[in-house]
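We treat protein structure as text, and this decision shapes the records that our systems exchange. The tokens are whole numbers drawn from a learned vocabulary of local backbone shapes. One such record is reproduced below, unchanged from the form in which we store it:
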Amino acid sequence: MEKGNGMGRFLTLMMLVLVSPIMAQPVLAEQQPALHWVGCGISKKAYLVNLAKAYEKKTGIVIDVQGGGATRGIRDVASMSADLGGSCRRRIRGVAEESGIVQVPVAWDALVAIVHKDSPVNNISLEDLRKVYLGQITNWKQLGGEDMPINLLVRKGKISGVGSTTRKLLFDNYDQEFVASELFDSSGPLEKKVESEPGTFAISGISSARKRNVKILDLNGKSPTYENVSTGAYLLYRPLYLVYNKDSEHANMAREFIRFAGSKEGRNVIRANNTVPYLEGLNLLRVKLNESKMAREGGGLH
């Protein structure tokens, strides 16, 4: 009887040893502190994924990274359904869904004109870019390409990160109408369409566009290189923001992550992704004043 009891205790102990690692794993995962990030897909690709990994390695704090667009990045944080957001546009003042948040600029992104990889066009002027969006240039022959219609792809609505910034940088008018051939809910499908279909034309953020099999056009003879963006030689650029809500229960944790993004270590991660850290492009704020003037003067093309 004692032998039987001894064998039973032995089997029970072995079962505990074998099962306990499997059972312990989800418990440890639940105990690990985490922040929930949503927002701009361009910010996500530009720096956020690798920055989150570096922060987890340094602190043990996991950043759960989701997409959803700039508007979601702002509004989910405002409603406190997310701890952190990413946005490539400023919040809209006077809109309740976007109130109560703090936006901190952490990087710079270039907006680029993208075309099919086989297009013979390599450069576009700022004036011609405006004319394409106003429907005044409708054929590739007018840009030095083949005799075929331009299929202009545009983000749906006017408040997306790319949509609002394009209107601001090209026309200094957030309500500017575009003469579009097709509308898209997000940048991913839009970029894929340019990859697959000759004759297409679109604007997207360089951080995601450079990872696609598309041709990125020079603008006024300048390519959107790291140096040209950081100095303002390339004309279309915008800040990328991290967003938090000071009333959130995780506000302090969110602020610590944002501090990390602006630290020397965080800037190194951003730079390694070929994205310009915000502090390394402060001169762009001065250049931007001149660009707004150019947009106002050039936005009235008829």
In short: The longest strand covers residues 102-116.
